[in-house]
Design goal:
Helix content is about 35%, strand content about 15%. With about 550 residues, the chain is of the alpha/beta class. Among the domains are: about 210 residues, Aminopeptidase, CATH 3.40.630.190; about 80 residues, Alpha-Beta Plaits, CATH 3.30.70.2390. Strands 8-3-4-5-11 form a 5-stranded mixed beta sheet, with helices on both faces. The chain has a 5-stranded mixed beta sheet with strand order 13-12-16-14-15, covered by helices on one side. A two-stranded antiparallel sheet has the order 1-2. Strand 6 and strand 7 form a beta hairpin.
Amino acid sequence: MRPAVGTATRARTATATRTRRGGTATPAGSIRTSGTGRRDRVPPTPPPSPAPPRTAAPTTPPTNPPTNPPTTPPTTPTRRRGPRPPRPRRPRTPQDSTQDSTGRPAADSEPTDRRGEDGPADEEYRTDEFSFIEEKNDESEDVIDWLKFSESRTERREEAKRRGRNRVVAGVVVLVLALTGGLGYLWSAGKLPGFAETETATDAKPDTRHVIVVHLRELGSGDISTALLVNNQTAARGTTVLLPNSLALASGEGGATTLGRSFAAEGAGATRDALNALLGARIEGTWRLDTPYLENLVEMVGGITVKSDATVPGEKDGDRPLVKQGAGQELNGVAAVAYATHRGESEPQTKQLARFGQVMQAVLKKVSTDEDAATTTVESLGQIPDPHLSEAQLGAALARLAKHARAGAYRTELLPVESDGTLSEKTAQGLVKEVLGGSVTNADPQATARLSVRDASGSRGAADDARVTLVNGGFTVVSTGAADAPAARSTITYRRDDHAEQAKEAARTLGLAADAVTKGEGAANADITVVLGADYKP
């Protein structure tokens, strides 16, 4: 049997092993670790007070102290990876009991029931019972990792939903734009059912054209060759339109005339205005190109090459031909002028116009495409420019036409003219509309004819008297003057058949015989020419 332990010894043992608020007993003077990881030194336990004198206790049957389940300190539950195995309880020893050997409570022991202060003192707990406090940091990291994982997973779900919504919105926007663009195209093209509009000539946007008229004038005879140089800027092509001298134009006097007579009688400005009225085209200016200037122009561009359709003889008999018939003929300035003005016997004027068109297109191929350089070439010619077409404007126009000629987007067309000088409906709807972008307004062949009076009677004042008589009769007299030579018999000459009746009416007005009226050439600026002879009586 174990020897009895003294009262003081038991008190010190009980005091040293007492738990504080459910914690494990800590020996005096040792290091104590708190729940927060803080380490504190345990102060030494003071000596116990003297025990009171023992008194005899009444004889009662021994009772066992109340056995209460150990109370564990309140802790924050943490997530564990698995169930914790049960820990074995430490067996109670006799020296830890508060009873004596007879089973009765010891008289010098402290009350055993301290639930309100430090918890039950009848049981001891080992430090491994609170190992979850030491594992708090690791367990907290697990919780934080789990929360981060849950949060990142939620964010990924939300991000995926947001991207999905953005894709849907973007798809809807693209679909709406495509649908709107398609409907707009169909509407503008007139292919949308129920909204198609009938296309008319006024609905179509006209091409941008720049037109100038060029007159090649021969110094010796004064004959002219006329062409329109057309630059279609929208279609990127150029055209030379050749105009026959028989083209009927409206005169400034209110009558009808031809292109050839208009230039000689009324000048370049009036002729340009008459062409504008006839063709409905906006001619920007006139380029009067006399034959010496054409010769210089060909020399300045280094000569030209044409496909000749005729042999042009030399200036004198026995001289070598200036131009031989065939392709690839290289021409200098003199040869170019000779070919452009050549008109064979019994050939119509349109054949000579075609040769002039060949020369002009060949010259445009050699002109510089730089506007400044082309302007320098024009200035070097030394011409007197038209008030409506400066040298800079002419140079720029030639440079643009040269680009089309070098690119192969250039052609030469002859304007077809009827026998009375007018333009047919086919010509109006074809060449005039497509090339010039205009509409034809033909001059009235039955309009009042223009008359020219020449005095060959030798009587002073006869011409003025005849002019007054004709004006009072409703005729238009454009000029009066003396004839080159006297004549015994008066004559009235008309050029076109549609003026025959008016010529006969003029003869009756002047009191002349009907056989004095004949068809033939007369004054260049008039439709009917009246020559007063000695038989005329004022």
